[in-house]
Amino acid sequence: MFNTSEVYVVAHSLVPGSRHYEKGLKELFAEAFLKVLDQVGNANLGAIYVANAFSEVLQDQGVLGAFLSDYVGMRRIPAIRIESGDGSSGVAILEAYNTVRAGIYDCVAVVGVEKMHDVVNIKLNKALATITDYEYEGFFGVTPAAQAAMAMREYMLKYGYDYEDLATWPIKMHERGSKNPLAYMKKQASLKDVLESEVVADPLRLYDVAPAVDGSAAVILCNKPVKSDAAIRIDGIGIGAYGTYTGQRDSLTELLSVRDATNMALRTAHVSIGDIRIAEVHDTYSILGMLSLESMGLVRPGETPRLLSTGALDAGNKLVVNASGGLKSMGFPGGASGMYELALMVMELMNIKPFESLGKAELGVVQDMAGFDLVSTSVVLRRVS
Amino acid sequence: MVDQRLSVPRYWRRMPQYYRLEGVQCIKCGRVYFPPRAVCECGSREFKPYPLPSTGKLINFTVLYSVPAEFEKMKPLIMGMVDLGGVKVIGQIVDCMDPEKLSPGIDVEVVFRMVKMDSTYGLINYGYKFRPINNC
After folding, report:
1. Do B65 and A142 touch (CB under 8 A)?
2. Measuring CA to CA, which residue among B97, B128, B63 is closest to residue A146?
């Protein structure tokens, strides 16, 4: 048996997502990274893991890690870039966690960074199409939005929902976002706003789509906590894969990689899904947020719209989903999305502003996913005092 | 006509699939795959070409208004999931002026169309699309 270390999240930060026209990848990275570095003082970092999905397409930049670490004066620290589409962050967290757990490094940083607004929308769509099977999907114009739309149609038919029933997701996420100063979308949305928003890919509307933002978020993972009060420990982590051509799926309403990732994370954390009190899920499209919850086992299949509308997933209940407002409110920073979810989860577990009202939740889960059910990760975090 | 500088071999090596919807059938267990793959679910690595039938049924679709750069002038695109003899293929639905008339279960046929054009002097890529058999 190997001796393994415990892994703690000792620092976290995020640059609120926005159209940061004045900042490039390097500035965004530095802003999030230097904040976590300052929180721990002398961290003695062994490596930096960089989660980024599209720098080749959007910034013509390869070997990203090298230039980012140099920019923050750490050119001799290996900065390892992880690309797994919009699920890059989860994989970067997993890799970073493994090196600390295995005792290779005492401390590592994980930084998600993405600069979505260096190109116009049609070019961004082209970049997003790279997270489909490009030869047989992207080539013909299939985009992640088209896949999500078909999943939404299948879900509505399968469980007998109207579009209005599913509109509860964006409404609830906007409501949470309106109370979160870190959110990109801070405005409440009414049913009328959602129903009158433009159609992106029928039945999917603009309000179902997490808005693309530039952003960066970071954590430092160490084998011991820096402070003794309210430390956050990673108790379990899991990865699941189900990459395939969309046509080869039996169903578009079950995310098998999400299911496997979550089961693995729960198993390694020695907890059951019923123990989870707060969750941050990857809602790039509202339907994917709902399917993720159901595939994780947090909500029974087909139940999410009903539970959301009754307020059963709001703060004050046994399970709180996307207290931050999710990617819908925080914005969608491509491969950095999962790092936002992780940083927010740490704040939620620690009851840091603006999440003081969440109460003392002990266990939370963060779910990240690449494309449509291609590669997913789940991280179980525990607050230990 | 956005300048893509598309690679020629990258396109012509897929002609059997783009032009004839050629999938593969496992010699051991008979499973059919589109797109082709190297190893079957049963573990076998031996396949023979298997052209998919040219008619099938629509099973799911969406009208896509936000498209990648090279499709900007063709939007909106109707993207459909089509069942061709038990194999599901995702692609564009064309010759349908009124998408309201589309519904899961209608009959469609495979047609051969231009997919994208690479600027003024570049490559023109062709491939399969699907058309409702009864007027749409």
Report:
1. no
2. B63
| Domain CATH code at residue A88 | 3.40.47.10
Domain of A81, in residue numbers = 7-120+215-222
Count of structural domains within chain A: 1
Q: Are B91 and B82 in contact (CB under 8 A)?
A: yes
Q: Is B70 on the interface with A (CB under 8 A)?
A: yes
Q: Let me know if residue A324 belongs to a domain.
A: no
Q: Coil, helix or strand for A200?
A: strand
Provide the 10 A C-beta neighbour count for residue A251: 11
| Number of domains, chain B | 1
* Token pair 């749409």: residue: B136
Give the rounded distance of the alpha carbon of A66 from its chain centre: 24
- Give residue B5's pLDDT band: very low, low, confident or very high (50, 70, 90): low
CA distance B54 to chain A (A): 16
**B100 domain residue, yes or no:** yes
Residues of B in contact with A150 (CB under 8 A): 60-62, 79, 81
Element (H, E) at A111: strand A107-114
- The verdict on residue B47 lying in a domain is no
- Does this complex have an ipTM over 0.90? yes
> What count of CB pairs under 8 Å joins A to B?
98
Instruction: Provide, as residue numbers in chain B, all residues whose Cβ is less than 8 Å from the Cβ of A199.
Output: 63, 65
CB B52 within 8 A of CB A142: no
Range of the domain at B106: 8-13+53-132
Q: What is the pLDDT of residues A28-79, one digit of tens each?
A: 999 999 999 999 987 789 999 999 999 999 999 999 999 999 999 999 999 9
Tens of pLDDT, residue by residue over A92-134, are 999 999 999 999 999 999 999 999 999 998 889 889 999 999 9
Nearest to B63 among A139, A154, A201 (CB): A201
Question: Is A94 inside a domain boundary?
Answer: yes
Closest residue in chain B to residue A125, using alpha carbons only? B68
Burial A227-245 (b: 16+ CB within 10 A, else e): eeeebbbbbbbbbbebeeb
Q: Is residue B31 part of a domain?
A: no
